[in-house]
Fold this sequence. Notes:
alpha+beta, 2 domains, six-stranded mixed β-sheet, six-stranded antiparallel β-sheet, 8 helices, 22 strands
Amino acid sequence: MGIRVENLRKSFGTEQVLDGVNIEIPDRxxxxxxxxxxxxxxTLLRIMAGIERPDSGTVYYDGxxxxxxxxxxxxxxxxxxxxxxxxxxxxxxxxASPLEVSDENYSREEIDRRVxxxxxxxxxxxxxxxxxxxxxxxxxxxxxISRALIKxxxxxxMDEPLxxxxxxxxxxxxSDFERLFSEQxxxxxxxxxxxxxxxAMSTHIGFLHDGNIIQDAPRDEIYFHPKFLPVxxxxxxxxxxxxxxxxxxxxxRRFFELRDGTRISVGTASGSFPSLSPGRDYxxxxxxxxxxxVRNGNGTAVKDEDETLIHPDLSFVETVGSTSTLHLEYQxxxxxxxxxxxxxxxxxxxxxxxxxxxxxxxxDPATGDLIATGHKIPSxxx
Length: 382
């Protein structure tokens, strides 16, 4: 049944950090709580784990009220962004320590077996006789995770465990976590400000905003169907682009007219976006990977009268491996485009990109609610 949270509230002084959080975390899922730094992710995890008490609200494990149960009486493990290992103990001794002080009275043979199995699972068998100061940052974090897992908890809470690692180690541990936890019975609750971490590893994602989880869903659903602008603008790497536009009509044809007069053709009134009203303003979302770079043979942007083109200015290009992220300025906003091969362009250049109206997201500018999507956006049962 997993974890269920009902109407959770928590304040620190006059600051309301959690304001009626409701959330359901499926059993054996890898559930990421995503939000910017300072939004209350750590507080939510600590309350769910039993480390901290809420002002009000209830936390259930498998349908049982655990709100007043002490953390030591719960089947939980906790991993923090700091590598919390005992510096005077070897890695082997660090792993064994939770079992040695447990009320379960594990035998020496059982402790040794679990240490060996957990070390092999986390790929740290080769450092068992080292002190924590003698291993790499990634190995130190694997050691901390092993200490949390060795008691085979039902629930593992991880608070930004990749935050202090360099890019290469983050990428490696992302892959390791996805593999590792797909094979475990443990339910993982993972807090991160990094959308890429959540999208790479999670089965489910919840987005924390203004003290509430405003959307939680399976990973693909929340990515392809972000119900609210804050989710859309955050949950991506890079995030969704959003521009303001007005729906206009000419005869039977419809267009979204942007602030600079550029028009995006969206078909007929009875075809695309039939529920929208001409003359109204909307917020238009589109993914960076759905922008098609239009250029001629020598790489210069070509002039085209196609009404689906936009013409932003290039700020700079960021190339990682074979993919380039183009940082662009358009209508006073920073937007992004992804190109599947490296590009070499001069900052300040005016470029042309074609938008596919079938991949547009349309949001209400007053409420931030998703009200329509293009026909090429995957649909999910509501």
